[in-house]
Amino acid sequence: MEQITIFVNGQRHELLIKPWATLLDVLREDLGLTGTKEGCGVGECGACTVIMEGRIVNACLILAAEAREKEIITIEGMAKGEELHPIQQAFVDIGGLQCGFCTPGMVLSTKALLDKNQNPTDEEIRKGLEGNFCRCTGYTKIIESVREAAERMKG
Amino acid sequence: MGSEGLITVRIKTTVHMPEVPAEVEMGQGAVLRDLLMKLLQKLPIANELIDRGTGEIKLEGLFEVRLNAVPRNSLPAGDTTELHHGDILTLSLILLGGG
Amino acid sequence: MEEYSVIGKRVPRIDAREKVMGEAKYAADYGLPGMLWCKVLRAPYPHARIVNIDTNRAMRLPGVKAVVTGADFGGWTWGFMATTRDEPPLAVDKVRYLYEAVAAVAAVDEETAEEACELIKVEYEQLPGIFDPEEAMKQGAPVIHDYRPNNVSVEYHWNFGDVEKAFADSYIVREDRFETGKVVTGFLEPPASLAYYDPSGQITVWAAKQSPYFHYRHLAACFRLPLSKIRIVQPFIGGGFGGTKNDSVAGDFCVVMLSKKTGKPVKYVYTMEEVLTTCRRRHNMIIYNKMGMTKDGILTAVESRVIGNGGGYTAIGPLTMYLTGSGTTLPYRLPNYKYDAWRVFTNNPVSAAMRGHGFTHTRFACDVQMDMLGEELGIDPVEIRMRNAIDNPAPGTEYRTVNGIGIKTCGLKEAITAAVADPLWADREKTPKQEGFVSHGVGLSGTTYQGGARQLGHQSCGAIIRICEDGTVNFLTGATDCGQGSDTVLSMIAAEELGVRYEDIAIKRVDTAYTPVDPGSYGSRVTLLAGQATQLAARDAKRQLLEAGAKTWNCAPDDMEIKNGFAYLKADPEKRMSFEKLAKIACYEGAGAVIIGRGHSSYGLETIDFNRGTGNGGTSYSFTAQTVRLGVDMETGKVDVTDFTIAHDAGVPLHPVSVESQNEGGAVQGLSQAVYEGFIMENGVTYNRTLLDYKMPRSTDVPDIKVIDIITNDPDGPFGAKEASEGSIVSTPPAVISALHAATGVWFKKLPVTPEDIVKGLKEAGKWGVKD
What we know:
CATH topology of the largest domain in chain C: Aldehyde Oxidoreductase, domain 4
CATH superfamily of chain B: Beta-grasp domain
Radius of gyration of chain C: 27 Å
Helix content of chain C: 25-40%
CATH superfamily of the largest domain in chain C: Aldehyde oxidase/xanthine dehydrogenase, molybdopterin binding domain
CATH architecture of the largest domain in chain C: 2-Layer Sandwich
Radius of gyration of chain B: 13 Å
Number of strands of chain C: 33
Strand content of chain C: 25-35%
CATH topology of chain B: Ubiquitin-like (UB roll)
Helix content of chain B: 10-25%
CATH class of chain B: Alpha Beta
Strand content of chain B: 25-35%
Strand order of the largest sheet of chain B: 2-1-5-3-4
Strand order of the largest sheet of chain C: 3-5-1-12-9-10-11
Oligomer: heterotrimer
Largest sheet of chain C: 7 strands, mixed
Distance between the termini of chain C: 49 Å
Structural class of chain B: alpha+beta
Number of domains of chain C: 3
Structural class of chain C: alpha+beta
Distance between the termini of chain B: 40 Å
CATH class of the largest domain in chain C: Alpha Beta
CATH architecture of chain B: Roll
């Protein structure tokens, strides 16, 4: 077992972990943050997307030990209490979701995109979400939601 | 009338059931129960349809049975309904999720 | 369209908040104290007899609490009909497809459970395997199930009218071989279940099931418990699309058995590799289609010979082959029709239902063949469809197909008109056909899908409306939203019928201990059938409330109405009280009362004869016309699909956002089946078993999609609705084939159409490498 310190959604956590535990394991099992999902377990679907030190990563590919001392944002860190982040609100208002399993990853990828690029073109939006697989929506309303979020966050 | 006092009953099925013949010959005076026993015993799941203890034939939720278009449970004489030459027995397999 | 308060409005999904916050809990998100983890051991051969299983070493591994094998289930098998119960929870005498489940372990964590699986020694006797359905039907092929020595799981032979004469009298007849691909549902959430077997004889399960009531019956039968002791709690479902999450998989049964053995809760979560190599997939089919027309392009007859690849077990196969044939007489008038179909066992994973069940295969073949004949006759794709399309029946009348399907509304002509009026089709000559190596093409299709499926034994479904004393509403549904948005639509229906606001409805999802029975999500039935049940339950609750209100106002209940959260006197709408007040009066006045409304769907059933093909398995049918614009690189064969326009007749769009989303998602899934997805398999082995290798579209792959609602107001759907879940997965593949033909001049008849297929086709046609 190894001792690590990680910062998740602004909170500091001291954890005892197995050396082979992934960040995904730790978030879900040790911290009970089940908003981050396991889809494929091998970094191909984006269901486990989190933001680590400002960049989106697949938590299933990051060893928990690699995340020591790092700042992680999960979906649970997006809203302020009951108040949704504008990205989340845009997804709700446009209907950029169906089953919701890819949604946490989509929201975080959107945040990473809009944090860097406030005025993305449609191409840039599609590229920004390329790592997040969705089977339900055909992506159409997800892309619309990101456009809407970008609009709202500018004004 | 069939040969030598035998009566012929036609069997219709609504789903492919290769174990079930298109026609069955029964003796004079045969009743529905006799026909059902004869047919159902051919099926791999016979034990489930015919109660080994009581001999009761339990088909609810599994098969719908009609004799000359009348549902089995609506026949006034039920399983003791006498069969006649040219009768048609329809066996519908019920497609049931979780069935 | 009528003026409704909630119906037809673009309200946010009822579950949107919890989903965007990551608070929505799916099966794998549940845990219980003392929980154990389950892993499944799978067979390394596609066809083998199980000679012996030795679990001793596995049992002795520290951390292992129990091991189960097929023998633990006492010979119990299941299936969709009494005579097709050929599938055990774990293989018993033999395995019939590669990686079929053979044993399972419960241990303190997943790693230990996996390690224990490796310690289980299974002795197999390999058997020759058979993988191609046409080969499996031949004499001398290895027998997969003793009860079907010719490997034919089910076969049908239908004959309507006189095809022989019709073909003889036809001006033109074509015969073509079509093939649909090996594709899977592709949900992102793998199957998972947390089970607890209470020693007092009760089972509680949190399972990723889109038909939890099927699973409830399976568990009752498997564990010999009364239904009243089976509790399935339905979490949020991460995608369904039919098949796997309607059926029960090995893990589902094993966790319950392991819990029974250990006295602890047990959880399993499948890996995506398990999903892609072992879970249910769409039947891939070979369709030998013969179609005849008059000189004017009027359909005379169709004869289809279909061979379906069934895989190792029957599952819902009999229904699949029925649906595959039954839709051929729609959406074009067809007086003569012959259908011969075989579903064949092979040593492959089980083929089952999937979105667009059945119709997908034959609508693809028929729609493409119709265009091929049109081309030969010199009649364009729009004209040929308009000449044959079923007209929208006048209100009160019905169009009957030769096999007994009744159509009360058909917006196909309107849909085609709308789709081709759209610039995508209308202006297709205005953009350059070829740019460099890329050749553009626009295609069209006109198809149909069934809604309100009613073929199964337990058809009926119920709903309960419970009025809380403060006027808010608990809506208990037996139906499962697997992502399609049914919770939202049903809540809207409840609100509209009761006369309250959408926000006042609190939906209570499936918990088989408390909610009424519903067969679940499949066959586009929830909005139609569970919707009707919801309407009736709401009306029942409303009636009870109005009776109480009428006593207070000293009038008759019929003198009152409820709308937008207020009860009022019809003759004098100024006299009103809030719904909250009405509820309080009803609940507290005098001895008080408990207001519970109940309803169940009453659409009933038509007798369906699967053997003869007669009868109507749906409540109504949707109609879709679609155009597709794409570009083909004439050198590499790469396809880039840029635009879809989908005109869909769903009767009335009750929740326009969901109708659009369903059309968009279905079309992308259909696109994927047409040109991207396909299992690469040989001798029962799946080679592309990761999401990277089993290619499904990403955000960068999808076209711009426009959805046009065609309104026909069907008398048989709540508020005029028809299905909006599966139409576009059926309409997309033929539209893509039509577009590929427009771009290349080549007809592709086998899905998926890969770049290699395109290059090969272009070379054969002498068009490869053509450049602008």
